[in-house]
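Exercise: predict the fold of this chain.
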Amino acid sequence: MISRENAYKLLNQHIQNAQMIRHSVASEVVLRVLATKLGHDPDEWGLAGLLHDIDVEITQGDPYRHGPFAAGMLDGLLSAEAIDAIVMHNEMATGKERTTVFQHALAAGETITGLIMATAMVYPDKKLASVKTKSITKRMKEKAFAASVKRENILECERIGIPIDEFAEMALVAMQGISDELGF
């Protein structure tokens, strides 16, 4: 398995957009927390979170290539389970539904980061420290807020046994722990 340091370098070789790098780092920390809670390897899950969008600029976000293209890039660097979760975080590319805990965790974990960042941006100070869990769950119900965030992906947390309120709290606290790195 690739080291976190080398994975971060690889990510930066393929992703130029600073916002996408922040999203990847936020996804990493959320996946680490989920792995710990669910009894899985936080390093493996964290790397999947960090690298899940490594092909997004190469594929230009093409929903039928994004994910599977990453599989080829990451073959031999991550476990087969991690690569499978990365491919399946974009279910459009495969035409299949997510079925494993890892797949659901990555889809929910990487998606909630966007909702949390968008929520922080409406606060006067634009800081993660100001965000409250209740604000995230309230924004979940507002379809027009951060409209591109797929709420159904976030709600996959419930398929792995974590209620949305608890999931939002876990993700928020994880992201607040690296707020300096995220710039929020």
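Check your answer against the key: The first helix runs from residue 4 to 14.
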